[in-house]
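Sequence in, structure out. Go.
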Amino acid sequence: MVESDIKQRFRQLNGVVLMPTYNNAKTLLQVIDDVRRYAADIMVVNDGCTDDTAALLASQPDLHVIAYERNRGKGYALKTGLREAARRGYAYAITIDSDGQHYADDIAVFVEAAEQSPNTLFVGARNLQADNMPSKNTFANKFSNFWYWAETGIKLTDTQSGFRLYPLVVLSNLHFITSRYEFEVEVLVRAAWKGIKVANVPIKVYYPPAEERVSHFRPARDFTRISLLNTYLVLMALLIYYPWRFLHTLTWSNIKRFVHNNITHSPESNLRMSLAIGWGVCCGILPAWGYQMWIALAVAQVAKLNKVLAVVASNISIPPMIPFILFGSYVLGCQLLGNPVSLLFSEVTFESVMVNLWQYVLGACVLAVLAGVCVWLVSWAVLSLFRKTH
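Output:
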């Protein structure tokens, strides 16, 4: 495939190559020269470089350059570049690192993918068994892939590659809270939550010998930031995204299919099915916000209960029900301890917060057990009445 053909097709897609850079003067010009063979429009974000980057960029014709004095992080550079690319009217932006690890000819892979699946966010998938690939990179990628699956339900083989194609129009309304390396995780998660398709395409990667590598990744600080972000995203996924997605699927045809597959035509006994439903409701009320579905799933797996019914029933803690569960748990806790129901925010102290929290936790645990037992008995009676097993 000739280079001029790719350049023309990428121009027809109204695309630009976006290159954030920070102190990569040794490799920057070579990467720019390689990219020019496949893309006519290139935008470079000078992320507060302190080396010769500014002078090198000034010597290059036909470049869109964004520069600021203080280093703000890769995430900030990417957000700035993506926002400017959208403002200039581009429909797609291919991001590529300036350290020479990516092969510019893989731009063709992204162009072909965008032509076949418009408005998809494509992430370059590196060969994790490639020569010279640092073992810490392999572990970090697998770690990131797992959390991405937990937060979105989507399995990708590479979530950390900086070689990507962003569909700018469909990403325009997303808002982000991060500004450094963790941005590349956040944007994938929020895109998936918005319903934007996220997929991998295979790319090549070059890892120079250890003594030649230049990395601005700060393991302790950046790993901590990424871990905090994943904690936040998992909580948001379990409290908001998954319940919302569950409600979104409650069409009449889906409900009938679910009842047919998991209740009326299930080979399980009425007792075990009702136990799964009661256990799910119990987990949904337990004061383990963010982990209720996982607890329901884990115990159902060990006890060999219907995992689907248990997880679905645990969604009793969907947003419309949360205020009632919280307040009911608190009131029940007050009654069990013989304390008055008092929620005066004008008299908030550390001691009052701890007392109210203890009352809520106690009440939630008792309410979870009571509700689980009641739902188990009622569902068992209903199933026994309307569903005959053989």
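Check: The mean pLDDT is 86. The two ends are 64 Å apart (CA to CA).
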